[in-house]
Amino acid sequence: MPTSAMPHPLLMARPSSKYFSLLLIPLILSVLLAGVSPLSDSCAPALIVASAQKSTSQTQRRKANAQPTPTPATLETLGAPPPVPKLKQKPEPQKPEPEIAPGEVISVQTTEVLLPVTVRDYSGHLVNDLTRKDFRVFENGNEQPLNDLALRQVPVDAVLLVDASSSVASFLDDFRHAAEGFAAKLAANDRISLIKFDDRVELLQDWTQSRFQLRRALSRIEPGMFTRFNDALMLAATDQFGKSKSRHAAIVLSDGIDSGRGAATLEAAVQALLKAQVTVYIVSNTEISRATKKAELDQLMDGSSASLRFNQLRIDDLREGLRVLDQSEENLAQLAAATGGRLYKPKGFDALDSIYAEVAEELLHQYALYYTPINRSRDGGFRRVQVQMTNPSYQATTRVGYFAPKS
Question: What is the pTM of this model?
Fold first, then answer.
């Protein structure tokens, strides 16, 4: 083949060089604009890194803007989402309802008056078959109307007060036995408490219907020396008896001779007992003490003149003791009469059983007489009350009066 027929290699590359130059121009311009020499060795790597970074950034933006496409078949098989679970709250403990002991139902605005009335015949026996028509009630001289519900069965709150001073200390066992017998005769819904007084006044047993608790409290009585009689009455009136619908009674074993070491006076104690509407029964050992003092005095007075002069101080002391006993008996009788109770003067402590049983019997057959006063004023004043029987052969005993409420 002739050589003129074969094209020269350089002639064949010209067209492609032309196109290559056109492609190279933009690349050179971009390098020049970036301040990099086209002949630098670092040009290629920098371009590669820049290009890679740009590509990575664009890829990340595309991934961020892209929304995931859920698979309908998978969600549909799961069904509706379950409800948000709620924590189970721990139930708050319910507060127990306060126990209401018998006799603690309080009527706040009541104007009704309760009179515990004991009725005896001429022979001293209790009368327990009377009706409303057998009673007449007078307040400050004015007769008060009674309704058909005047007589009711009402429980009793009875506090036992025992003098543990030296005058009674040697006979405490007799009192313990009598107190247990007294409690055994009370009704099932009656309550009892125990207060001991000597140098101090102590509440040994608060209100209870348990005979076992009373027996345990009786065993804690310890003898003392002095007698705070007035303070014991004041404590019973102010702290033991609230505004209840029960009858209030106090049974006191004491000679009633206060040592003068307390804060209350007898007059203040009696007023507090009337305000608390307490009926006071007193078992006084004054007769026992009187017999003992008289026997010693008679023995001393039978001595010679020299013996009388030697024992003159003791003789004077015994005579003063007898005078104090007489005065105490008068005070105790007035206290019992004012509150509608009774004064017992046994000749020996062996009679305590029968006396406490008699008091319990009276409380069981006592009438609870209610009436609404005609005088509705709430002035806090004292109003005298008198109960008369339509049958003159019957004798009614109640307190001398009451203090009106004060608003």
Answer: 0.72
